[in-house]
Design a protein that fits this description.
The protein is of the alpha/beta class and about 260 residues long. Strand 24 and strand 25 form a beta hairpin. The two termini are about 35 Å apart.
């Protein structure tokens, strides 16, 4: 376990967890010491502007989480809009009904020399990785969003870009990597390590001491039993029950889960 002290908190990295940019982790992660999510604070307590990348379904769920977090905490974070390279009429109409401005494509917005933080409201792990690299290259920093109805246990590490939606339960000593997404009502058990760009879909259960390597997608309602390892780029199908380690890039489906790839 590596520990970097900061003026106000400590950031801990579990052995073997890949984090793309240690400087961003240092200043944007936070260590939760037994507090409910409504009591947690990030290093950027003064808030600031945030932009959501992605106008689709998860992007709109992220809008709700950002708004709920801002209304429940004493900081001035402001959602200034959404960027999307191809939003489509349906998603644009949904944004308009929510009163959220569409700021153009990501390249158009990045060309305006912005200073806001960003979160990636896109579920596909590989796309998240590409978007992260593009925005970091532009000098921007990812924000961390925790819905106030979520429960986060003690001694958890939330890396930059983490999004925790409504009803999520995160137990103690959990590590969440860059741009890890926990969809509504997902559960992550004690001592789990969730790598960079992982997406855990609604109602999925990651049991205690599970390690999910980077770019894993866990489908809705799936269960990963305790002490298992999910290799990088693997996909766990909806409602699957994983009872043994899953190799990298495999697609695991069924009960008990079998895979191909």
């Amino acid at each position: 376990m590596r520990i970097w002290p900061t003026p106000r908190f400590q950031v801990r990295l579990a052995p073997g967890l890949h984090v793309s940019n240690a400087r961003h982790l240092l200043w944007h992660s936070y260590l939760v010491r037994g507090l409910g999510s409504s009591q947690c604070s990030t290093p950027n307590e003064s808030g600031g502007d945030v932009v959501i990348v992605g106008a689709g379904g998860f992007g709109r769920e992220t809008i709700e989480a950002v708004r709920a977090e801002a209304s429940s905490m004493s900081h001035s974070r402001r959602l200034i809009g959404v960027v999307d390279s191809d939003p489509g009429r349906f998603n644009l109409a949904r944004l308009a009904s929510l009163g959220v401005p569409y700021l153009g494509t990501d390249l158009e917005w990045l060309g305006s020399n912005p200073s806001a933080e960003f979160v990636i409201g896109i579920g596909d792990p590989r796309i998240k990785a590409r978007v992260h690299r593009r925005f970091i290259a532009a000098g921007l920093h990812p924000a961390t969003v925790v819905h106030p109805s979520a429960t986060v246990g003690s001694n958890c590490v939330l890396a930059p870009g983490t999004i925790i939606c409504a009803g999520v339960q995160v137990s103690s000593f959990v590590t969440l990597g860059l741009h890890s997404h926990l969809n509504p009502n997902a559960t992550v058990g004690h001592d789990a390590v969730i790598g960079d760009y992982v997406s855990v879909n609604p109602g999925a259960i990651i049991s205690g001491r599970v390690t999910c390597h980077s770019e894993v997608l866990v489908g809705a309602g799936a269960t990963v039993l305790q002490n298992l390892t999910i290799g990088s780029g693997a996909t766990i199908g909806a409602m699957a029950c994983v009872t043994r380690d899953v190799p990298s890039k495999a697609v695991a489906v069924g009960v008990p889960a079998r895979w191909r790839g």
